[in-house]
Amino acid sequence: MQAMTQSSSKKTKGSARAKVSPPVVNSISEEAAYLLARARNMAFAEAAEGRIGNGLSLLQEALETEPMAHDLLSDMAALLLSAGELTHAEAYARKALAIAPEHGASLYTLAFAQSGQKAPEQARETLRHLLQGEALRSLMHEAPDLLPVAMTELARLDSLLG
After folding, report:
1. How far apart (Å, rounded) are the C-alpha atoms in residues 146 and 75?
2. DSSP for residue 68
3. Per-position pLDDT tens, the chain of length 162
4. Residue 126 near residue 114, CB atoms below 8 Å
5. Which residues contact residue 70 at a Cβ distance below 8 angstroms, ignoring those fewer than 6 apart?
6. Which of 160, 158, 8 is nearest to 83 (CA)?
C-alpha cells in the first residue's frame, strides 16, 4: 500500500496538475482568480522541490481568501495525499466534492486516500464513479495522465475484491 501511495505522490508531483489554470469561479474577480492560480502554481512548485509543507502553507493561505474554491481544496487534498496524510487528504477531497461533485482530480485523490486507509470497497466505488460520465471528462481535461493510474488501481481492487 505504501508503494501505491508513493507512486501516487510521484504522479501528483509530475502530473498535469503541476501547472494549473485559473479556477473557474464566477463569484470572484478576474484578479482574484489570477492570484488563486498563482498560489496553486507556487504550491505545486514547492512540492515538486520536496517542500510539501511550504506548498500546503501556500494553499492554506489561499483558502483563507477563498474557502469555497474547489480547485484549492482539491490541490490541498493532492498534496496531503503525496505527504501520506491520508485522512486529511480524504477530508479535503470530500470538501472539494461537496462543491463540485464530478471533479475528476478530487475523486482520484479520494479513491487513493480510501485505498491507502484499507477501504478497498469504497475506493473501488469511487474509481468506478471517476471513470464514467462528467467525472471522467473532468479528469481528462485537467489531468489525463492520471487515467492509466486510476484504471490500474481499479483493476487491482477488482482482482482483490473479486
Report:
1. 14
2. T
3. 333 333 333 333 333 344 444 444 445 678 878 888 899 999 999 999 999 999 999 999 999 989 999 999 999 999 999 999 999 999 999 999 999 999 999 999 999 999 999 999 999 999 999 999 999 999 999 999 999 999 999 999 999 999
4. yes
5. 23, 96, 97, 99, 100, 103, 106
6. 8
Q: What is the 3-state secondary structure (H, E, C) of 114-152?
A: HHHCCCHHHHHHHHHHHCCHHHHHHHHHHCHHHHHHHHH
Write down the residue that cell numbers 469555497 correspond to.
Answer: 68
* DSSP-based three-state secondary structure for 102: coil
Question: Residue 24: its pLDDT value, please?
Answer: 46
Domains and CATH numbers, the chain: 2-161 (1.25.40.10)
Q: What is d(CA 157, CA 87) in angstroms, rounded to the nearest whole number? A: 20
Look up residue 16 and give its DSSP letter. G
Among candidates 132, 138, 91, which has minimal Cα distance to 113? 91
